[in-house]
Amino acid sequence: MNLKTTFSVAAVVAASCAAGGAQATELEVTHWWTSGGEAAAAAELAKAFNATGNTWVDGAIAGSGGVARPIIVSRIIGGDPMGATQLNHGRQAEELIEAGLLQDLTEVAEAEGWADFVNPTSLLDSCTLDGKIYCVPVNIHSWEWMWLSHQAFEDAGVDVPADWNEFVAAAPALQEAGKVPLAMGGQGWQQNGAFGVLTYAIGGVDLWSQINADKDAEAAAGPEMGKIFEAAAAARELAKDSNVQDWNQATNLVITGQAGAQIMGDWAQGEFQVAGQVAGEDYTCLPGLGLNEIISTGGDAFYFPKLDDPAKTEAQLKLASTMISKQVQVAFNLKKGSLPVRGDIDLSAANDCMKKGLEILAAGGIVPTGDNVLTADTTGQMEDLQTEFWSDLSMTAEEAQARYADIISDAD
Questions:
Q1: Residue 337: what pLDDT?
Q2: Are residues 124 and 198 in the same domain?
Q3: Measured distance CA(288)–CA(201) in Å, rounded
Q4: Does any domain span residue 373?
Q5: At CA 146, angle to CA 338 and CA 299, rounded to 5?
Q6: Which CATH number fits the domain that encloses residue 121?
């Protein structure tokens, strides 16, 4: 583990960190969970860690992951590492691992049998490089959802749509009622995420994988992908009056009935919960836009930079163990709106939307996420393209598709 002071991770896991214990220590934890629902979920992790006698020092970074990740990476590379940090498991941390800057969690994972209960196994695989585990997955987040406001559709005098096609058909009624049909924040990661959802829902899993996993530039430039760009152009038109920047501001438009719908990951559910809204009564969720009921199994994970301090290293391992424990998985994910990474816990308290996600997961309707198959550089190029496409209504679907195909042709 490349520590000046070595010790058995299994012993650390078994050891009690009672309040006031000799090894109790402060640990700075960086993350980008700053919306109401996200903050409530992060508080559950902090409470559980503090109960071990250690202290969670909150290092929330305002803004999206795209804002936070460069700051996090810069600190680690620059010699000012935090105790733990949120990242999306997948390829984002590859260079940090290869540089020897992140803690190897393999021994604690094996001691606790993570491989026996993490479901799907791809979550732990995404934390693994060269046979070693470098992160703890804390949830399953899926992008493939559309959230619909019952109030907005009632005000417009139309039924709540059952799928994307019905939503597009209902959009004129929403506009006549003074509603924004589709809420969309003005950030590339949101627009690129929505584009990916359209790809899965309309184009299907095989097309998505052919382009993103296999890097098939010919398919990216082909007629099937052309349909996706036409759908994105339609979505762009429906979202042109959103006039918000952050994702949770767009979610609030749906919560307050100012907008009909939002394409956003299941983390949006935490905002509905904080607002006191009830799934199935105040809002409807459509996995796969109601066209293709699948969910991706990306999500959040925590990595632990190497520290030259045995007490802090012990606290890091305790935090990793705490995050994946049964009790914390339930408390955290109920607040976050995400699904647990453990397949051995009771979630009878889950709401209708979480239950839909659990049913899809149990049925095996899971698909890969871009974080696992695309480099950060490729993802950044796609986000830049989507930002330009969604903000410049003069850019045609054909022009955007041609540039998209060029990005795929250069992707590794």
A1: 87
A2: no
A3: 5
A4: yes
A5: 30
A6: 3.40.190.10
Higher pLDDT residue, 180 or 361? 180
Q: What's the CA gap between 407 and 404, in Å, rounded?
A: 5
Instruction: Give yes or no: residues 225 and 287 share one domain.
Output: yes
Residue 129, beta-bridge partner list: 132
Q: Which of 103-117, 200-214, 256-270, 370-384 has the lowest mean pLDDT?
A: 370-384
Which residue range is the domain that position 188 belongs to?
A: 145-296+366-410
d(CA 171, CA 156): 9
Q: How many domains does the chain have?
A: 2
1 domain-assigned: no
Specify whether 40 is located in the same domain as 70: yes
307/259 Cα distance (integer angstroms): 47
Edge-to-edge order in the sheet of strand 145-149? 180-183, 259-263, 145-149, 283-287
Nearest to residue 149, comparing CAs of 63, 261, 231? 261
The model's pLDDT over 176-222, given as tens digits with 9 standing for 90+, comes to 999 999 999 999 999 999 999 999 999 999 999 999 999 999 999 99
What's the burial of 363, exposed, middle or buried (CB within 10 Å: 0-12/13-18/19+)? exposed
First to last CA, the chain: 30
Q: Which residues, at least 6 apart from 87, have a Cβ–Cβ distance to it below 8 Å?
A: 65, 69, 72, 93, 135, 300, 301, 302, 303
- Dihedral over Cα of 37, 39, 42, 44: its sign: negative
Percent of the chain with pLDDT over 70: 94
Phi, psi angle pair for 385, to nearest 5°: -65, -45
Q: Is residue 39 part of a domain?
A: yes
The reply to whether 177 and 234 lie within a common domain is: yes
- 48 and 130 housed in the same domain: yes
Task: Report residue 10: phi and psi, to 5°.
Answer: -60, -40
